[in-house]
Write a structure and sequence with these properties.
In the C-terminal section; belongs to the phosphate acetyltransferase and butyryltransferase family. This protein has 32 helices and 20 strands.
């Protein structure tokens, strides 16, 4: 099946198209409907009539962007008209929603007259928080954007002009740094003189490139002052006319530092590349095929060629999706009146900075595990990197405030949390724990300290102020990996092969001598098994917490800390707890990793542990003991332990959270069943702590909810230990290690208090 056939099938599948309207409030009862529409809707209508700005308070205006086009210049297709352009505009809406949680109405106008497009768009200002102009031919696009910016009091942004400018501008900042060149010294040549090229040239000037160093070529050749005076070029091209002899693109490229291609495929040869200055920068962005191929440009010279294209199958893709969703996000969140030059520059600088940071594992995996590290083949972040939202939107919002374009402000400390909440409940919940950890960081041992993921996690843990990481392993090997990864930090390393750890061996021997361990065996374990060494360090107080398990099976990783540290004074059993975050709900599930066939004693204790874990995330627990029976409907040896555990907890005056059971899973989480059929239940709201009757069902349950229910899982968090220890899953990503380190720090804070 060809790409076109596959795309047709994709768009035709029911329901046709790519977007829909969804409700954001409950509409399940008659009362809900009377609030959503008549008669209740009169309330917000009257409020907005009295105070127009209340539209941002009571309607979706503040998160709604209109994507406006007449289809006169659709990328790769040309003037295909308004209706044929609709799939593109719907696609733009998908990107807004996917990357920045912004809602979109796409508006395709069957209009060619700029006056009519301006009038139609401006008339819809009450509907939208911002306008994104798309695929409108030059030079009309310049006039339309300029007039709408003057006429409308909301952001207006022509992405075809400014998107490429901003993203390639970020690439230029990094490419120039890698080439050892200053922007003000760069000789820049443009192949192409359309809307995107002119906007990009203007933006490069804003970044620091000197206008007199920019040479622009159109299909006729170099745009010279002589051509401008002869009226051979329009007013927009005249802006970049130079006092140069007439010539073609090849003439312009001789000695140039930078080539910016926004023209046509295959018009640049290797000879033209060889004529450029040392270590040239080539942004060949014609789509779908660039002005010169990636391999051709690289092979043209012996020195470094920093190459970017508009394609995703080569390094350094200049992709507008790195800009517009996040620019609008920041602009909308401070109710900006415009998207000005300062906001665009802030976006480019933030993107350039992000490319220098360590890349999340999920992003690396998405690109075939190829190395993604700042350098000639990585000067721009990848679009799916979730950090783009957290870096770009705040930078744009801050620039809007500082430049006077904002009508409201955001608190930098809480704005990131708001953005994280837009991408998922788990991020919102983890932010609670991360903030607690940063308030009082502790020492966390990472037992598999030679592993690359552990080293990268240690860097992030230290950089974000979550904890002081201590890496266990060979000092030279860890140092070599730190250097190879380009991480600028000096981690604390405990090397068991070089240090004097007799006291640790003595401690281990003292604990295990009557359990079959000799002094020599204790010494050997401390020096050869980092799980024993780390456990002893935590037990004697040389560290506050420990993470392990990344390269071990769970039982083998759990055994040393259980033997050395053990469970708490008030606990006989440990338990593995997962936090599962859905769109509007969080539940904590146990036990999924430790106790295979628990009796009532174990289930009672596991419930207490899991409730404590929920409170670390500022969630007040409501616990349900799960079974295939509802409150005694089945009475046998399989259902009795859950029922008995619930009864004990209910009878304990020290238990300060609601608990009930045994009950079926849907009874526990569906309010209509819980309060309708079983109104006698101790739970007034659906449970958020779910205690499974055995390990098998708990493990199956959390994995089904994660994979089929779309839940994001955090854990397993090991509860009930005397001191904080968490056992990672093999294959966990760096972010999982960082998250569990934060949980371990909060555990240590609670233990200390």
């Amino acid at each position: 099946m060809s790409l076109e056939d596959e795309s047709l099938e994709y768009h035709e599948e029911e329901p046709p198209g790519k977007i829909e309207i969804a409700t954001t409030k409950s509409t399940s009862t008659q009362r809900d409907l009377s609030l959503a529409y008549s008669p209740g809707v009169a309330g917000p209508c009257r409020a907005i009539d009295e105070r127009p700005d209340d539209a941002y308070r009571y309607t979706a205006k503040g998160n709604l962007v209109g994507v406006v086009s007449n289809g006169s210049a659709v990328l790769g297709l040309g003037d295909i008209g308004a209706q044929a352009s609709k799939p593109v505009m719907e696609g733009k809406g998908v990107l807004f929603k996917r990357f920045a949680d912004i809602d979109v109405f796409d508006l395709e106008f069957e209009l060619d007259d700029p006056d009519e497009i301006v009038a139609a768009t401006a008339a819809m200002e009450p509907t939208f928080g911002g306008i994104n102009l798309e695929d409108i031919a030059a030079p009309d696009c310049f006039e339309i954007e300029e007039r709408l910016r003057e006429r409308m009091d909301i952001p207006v942004f022509h992405d075809d002009q400014h998107g490429t400018a901003i993203i390639s501008g970020a690439g230029l900042l990094n490419a120039a740094e890698l080439a050892g060149k200053h922007l003000e010294d760069l000789e820049v040549v443009f192949s192409g003189a359309g809307a995107s090229a002119i906007a990009t040239a203007r933006f490069y000037v804003s970044l620091g490139v000197r206008k007199e160093n920019i040479t622009m070529c159109d299909s006729t050749g170099i745009i010279t002052e002589e051509r401008a005076e002869a009226g051979d070029v329009n007013e927009f091209k005249q802006e970049f006319a130079r006092d140069l002899p007439e010539g073609g693109l090849a003439d312009a490229m001789e000695g140039a530092d930078v080539l910016v291609g926004l023209s046509a495929a295959g018009i640049v040869s290797q000879e033209m590349v060889r004529a450029m200055a040392a270590d040239p920068i080539i942004f060949a962005m014609a789509n779908p095929d660039p002005e010169i191929g990636y391999e051709e440009a690289k092979a043209a010279r012996d020195d470094t060629v920093i190459m970017a294209t508009g394609r995703s199958d080569y390094p350094n893709q200049v992709n507008n999706v790195l800009g517009f969703p996040f620019i609008f996000r920041g602009a909308l969140d401070v109710r900006a009146t415009e998207i000005n030059e300062a906001m665009k520059v802030a976006c480019a600088e933030a993107l350039a900075d992000l490319a220098k940071q360590d890349v999340p594992d999920a992003v690396i995996k998405a690109y075939g595990d190829q190395p993604l590290r700042f350098g000639p083949e990585y000067i721009l972040p990848k679009p799916i990197d979730p950090r783009v939202l957290f870096e770009i939107a705040p930078a744009v919002a801050e620039a809007a405030v500082e430049s006077g374009a904002a009508r409201s402000e955001v608190d930098p400390e809480t704005y990131r949390e708001r953005l994280e909440a837009r991408l998922g409940k788990s991020r919102e919940m983890m932010r609670v724990v991360l903030n607690k950890a940063k308030s009082d960081p502790k020492r966390v041992v990472l037992s598999e300290g030679e592993d690359e993921k552990m080293i990268r996690a240690a860097y992030q843990i230290q950089d974000e102020g979550i904890a002081t990481p201590v890496l266990l392993g060979d000092r030279d090997e860890i140092g070599t990996t730190v250097t190879r990864l380009g991480l600028e930090f000096e981690p604390e390393i405990v090397d068991p092969s070089t240090g004097d750890y007799d006291s640790y061996a003595d401690h281990l021997y003292g604990q295990r001598q009557r359990k079959g361990m000799t002094r020599n065996e204790a010494d050997e374990l401390v020096r050869s098994d980092p799980n024993y060494l780390g456990s002893v360090m935590v037990d004697v107080g040389d560290a506050d917490a420990m993470l392990t398990g990344l390269t071990h099976h769970y039982p083998s990783a759990l055994r040393p800390p259980l033997e050395v540290i053990g469970t708490g004074d008030d606990a006989d059993y440990a338990a593995g707890v997962y936090m599962l975050a859905f769109k509007n709900r969080v539940v904590f599930i146990a036990d999924a990793t430790v106790n295979q066939d628990p009796d009532a004693d174990v289930l009672e204790e596991v419930t207490r542990h899991t409730a404590d874990v929920a409170r670390r995330f500022d969630v007040e627990p409501r616990a349900a003991m799960l079974s295939y029976s509802n409150f005694g409907s089945v009475d046998n040896e399989r259902t009795r332990p859950s029922r008995e555990a619930a009864q004990r907890l209910q009878a304990d005056p020290n238990v300060d959270f609601p608990i009930d059971g045994e009950m079926q899973a849907d009874t526990a989480v569906v309010e209509e069943i819980l309060n309708g059929t079983y109104e006698f239940s101790e739970l007034e709201e659906p449970a958020n702590v779910l205690v499974f009757p055995n390990l098998e069902s708990g493990n199956i349950g959390y994995k089904l909810l994660q994979r089929l229910g779309g839940a994001e899982a955090t854990g397993p968090m090991l509860a009930g230990m005397d001191k904080p220890v968490h056992v990672l899953q093999r294959g966990d990503e760096v972010k999982d290690i960082v998250n569990l380190a934060a949980v371990a720090v909060v555990d240590a804070q609670r233990t200390e208090n």
